[in-house]
Structure formats: structure tokens, C-alpha cells
């Protein structure tokens, strides 16, 4: 059968329209996953000389599609860790934030070789922390300035929600049982994003942004919730801060010497404050160490106890977490990247490497 030129052109036109329509549909679906959250006019809830709290009106996370196919998360493709930032236990699983491998790992046991851990996600860029309320697992996707929400669906962890534009380089996240809120720290802007999960829908929402005015533009790596207060380690501002958890009003400042200014984490243990030092004030990581003191006011005079000799490593200590009666410290730029230790009557013991 002979096909005329007009018929061929009509046929090609129909094909082109169909392809364009499909492209637009795919683009629309893609944009739903990556579009930035709608910006609302910020409403000031409370302001002091040192802080400001914005009411965000419960800005919801972007809901992502979830697969109903049942299969497991993939197995780790690396035999070692690369600059792990954090190790925690949530529920029945242990999690390692394998920062420079751009992935989050999990396992039911700590004895499992790293190469046999499962990969929760590798769709992240230099992640730093993870925490959970028992249902939702929030991950700081640091270099993408976002927080990803994971849930156990169809036999594996799936990324079910996404919160974009979370400050600049969100580093640390902690779930606060007292307020049933996630606290997410933007390490470069002095802002804490307070998030709550709606009980009926499960959607994670931004409730408030609480800001320490004087920490804007300084690099502060983490925070520690201590009851009704939050303690911030020193960054390149050169001093530690204690603020009110609700208003973020500064309650105390603790100057530190230049040698210990680049703190990564502060952990109250027994009668002491334990501090991991990632670098000095000028970001020289050869000064990395671990110290402790009973009085934070003594730090400005260099009066503290250096305890890093307890650990046979010359690496750079980072975050500390408490798991099953022991403390676990991530460590990078060394052969052994995770260390554990016990503290009893303020004495350090049972020091050993995990990976």
C-alpha cells in the first residue's frame, strides 16, 4: 500500500506530540521531587537581643513516591569506611554515616563486617548525621542543604519525604524526646530548624526556625541538648555558647584558646565535659585532640585535661554517641575510624577500635 507524503507528515506530527507530552509529564513528576519548598513570609514569634524565633506555620516536607515492590536495600560495596561522621543505634539497627563515601549504612549487629552492612541510601552528598523518633529517620544531606526522611517500607528503608533549603550545610540532627521534635542545625547560619512529625499523616513539618544571631556566618559543627538548654561547641567564633532551648537566648559564653577552637562535639560524661577537637582556630587539623574539663570557664586559660593519649590513634576525632553502655567516637584520617570506650567513676577504660 502506498503511503502519501501528507500521511507520513501527519504520522510524524502525532509521534512528536506524544513524545512531547510524555516529556512534560516526566518533567512534572521530576519537579515534584526536587522543587524547593514554598517560601513563606517569616513571622517572628519571639525576639531577644541575642536570638530570634520564626514561626514557620508547619511547612510540610515534599512527599516522594514509594515502591510497593518487596526487596532489600543493597549491600555496601566498600570494605572500609571513609571519614565516618557518626555511629548510632536506633531501634534494632545500628547506623554509620559514612560521610566521604556519600552513604548511610545500617546493620543489626556491630560485629558485622563493614562490607556486609546494608546501604540505607547513597543519594546524599557528605552526610553528617542521622536520628529517629522510632518511625521516621531523618538524615542531614549536608552539601545539598536538605534533610531526607526515610521509613521502613516494603522490606527496606525508602526515602519518603524531602525538606529542601535547610540553611547552609546542615550538620547535626537530634530528636528531642521532651518536645517530640527534631532539631536540625545549619552549621553556617546559626539557625536551628525545629521539625515535628504529624501523628496522623506522618508528614515531617518545619515548625520553627530558632536563630542565635551571633553565630551567623560562623562554622559550628554540632550541638548538645542538655535539658532546657543547648550547648554549642566552639567554631571559628572562638567560644562555646549555652542557650535557652526554647528562645535560643544566649545564657553563657565560654571563651577558648586558639588551639582548641575548632571543636566538633561536646559530650557531658560523669563530672566532666568531653570535647573532640577537629582543628585549631586556623583549621589546622594536626592539632586535633580530645580533652575534658569539669568547668567550662577554665578553657579560656588552657586549663583542661588532654585525654587523647588514651586512644592509640593520631586521627581526627568527631562525634560521640552512647550505645549499649559504651561511648563510640568516630575518627578520620587514621587506620581505625571508630573507637569505643567506657567511663566509670570518671576513669576511662575498655578502649578499643571497632572498624
What attributes does this structure have?
mainly beta, Neuraminidase, 6-stranded antiparallel beta sheet, 5-stranded antiparallel beta sheet
What do you see in this structure?
The protein has one domain (45-353): TolB, C-terminal domain (Neuraminidase). The longest helix is centred in the N-terminal third of the chain and has 30 residues, at 5-34. A hairpin with a 2-residue loop joins strand 16 (224-226) and strand 17 (229-232). The model is unreliable at 5-40 (pLDDT under 50). Helix content is 8%, strand content 46%. The chain has one helix at residues 5-34; strands spanning 43-47, 51-60, 62-63, 84-90, 93-98, 103-107, 118-121, 130-132, 137-141, 146-153, 156-163, 170-176, 181-186, 191-197, 204-212, 224-226, 229-232, 239-244, 250-255, 262-269, 272-279, 289-293, 305-306, 316-323, 326-332, 338-344, 347-353.
Q: What is the element layout, followed by pairings?
A:
Layout: H1 5-34, E1 43-47, E2 51-60, E3 62-63, E4 84-90, E5 93-98, E6 103-107, E7 118-121, E8 130-132, E9 137-141, E10 146-153, E11 156-163, E12 170-176, E13 181-186, E14 191-197, E15 204-212, E16 224-226, E17 229-232, E18 239-244, E19 250-255, E20 262-269, E21 272-279, E22 289-293, E23 305-306, E24 316-323, E25 326-332, E26 338-344, E27 347-353
Antiparallel strand pairs: 1-2, 2-15, 3-11, 4-5, 5-6, 6-7, 8-9, 9-10, 10-11, 12-13, 13-14, 14-15, 16-17, 17-18, 18-19, 20-21, 21-22, 22-23, 24-25, 25-26, 26-27
Amino acid at each position: 500500500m502506498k503511503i502519501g507524503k501528507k500521511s507520513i507528515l501527519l504520522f510524524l506530527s502525532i509521534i512528536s506530540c506524544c513524545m512531547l507530552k510524555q516529556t512534560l509529564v516526566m518533567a512534572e513528576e521530576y519537579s515534584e521531587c526536587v522543587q524547593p519548598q514554598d517560601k513563606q513570609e517569616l513571622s517572628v514569634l519571639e525576639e531577644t537581643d541575642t536570638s530570634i524565633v520564626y514561626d514557620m506555620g508547619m511547612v510540610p516536607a515534599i512527599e516522594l513516591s514509594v515502591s510497593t515492590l518487596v526487596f532489600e536495600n543493597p549491600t555496601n560495596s566498600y570494605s572500609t569506611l571513609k571519614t565516618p561522621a557518626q555511629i548510632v543505634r536506633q531501634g534494632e539497627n545500628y547506623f554509620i554515616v559514612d560521610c566521604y563515601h556519600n552513604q548511610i549504612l545500617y546493620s543489626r549487629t556491630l560485629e558485622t563486617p563493614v562490607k556486609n552492612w546494608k546501604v540505607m541510601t547513597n543519594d546524599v552528598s557528605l552526610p553528617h548525621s542521622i536520628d529517629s523518633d522510632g518511625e521516621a529517620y531523618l538524615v542531614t544531606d549536608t552539601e545539598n542543604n536538605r534533610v531526607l526522611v526515610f521509613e521502613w517500607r516494603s522490606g527496606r528503608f525508602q526515602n519518603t519525604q524531602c525538606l529542601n533549603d535547610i540553611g547552609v550545610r546542615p550538620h547535626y540532627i537530634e530528636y528531642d524526646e521532651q518536645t517530640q521534635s527534631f532539631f536540625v542545625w545549619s552549621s553556617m547560619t546559626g539557625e536551628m530548624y525545629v521539625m515535628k512529625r504529624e501523628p496522623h499523616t506522618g508528614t515531617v513539618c518545619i515548625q520553627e526556625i530558632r536563630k542565635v544571631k551571633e553565630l551567623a556566618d560562623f562554622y559550628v559543627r554540632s550541638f548538645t541538648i542538655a535539658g532546657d538548654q543547648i550547648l554549642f561547641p566552639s567554631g571559628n567564633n572562638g567560644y562555646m555558647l549555652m542557650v535557652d532551648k526554647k528562645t535560643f537566648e544566649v545564657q553563657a559564653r565560654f571563651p577558648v584558646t586558639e588551639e582548641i577552637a575548632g571543636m566538633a562535639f561536646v559530650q557531658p560524661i560523669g563530672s566532666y565535659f568531653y570535647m573532640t577537637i577537629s582543628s585549631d582556630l586556623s583549621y589546622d587539623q594536626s592539632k586535633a585532640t580530645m580533652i575534658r574539663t569539669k568547668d567550662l570557664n577554665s578553657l579560656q586559660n588552657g586549663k583542661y585535661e588532654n585525654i587523647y593519649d588514651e586512644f592509640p590513634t593520631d586521627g581526627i576525632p568527631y562525634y560521640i554517641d552512647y550505645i549499649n553502655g559504651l561511648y563510640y567516637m568516630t575518627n578520620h584520617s587514621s587506620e581505625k575510624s571508630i573507637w569505643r570506650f567506657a567511663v566509670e567513676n570518671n576513669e576511662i577504660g575498655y578502649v578499643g577500635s571497632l572498624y
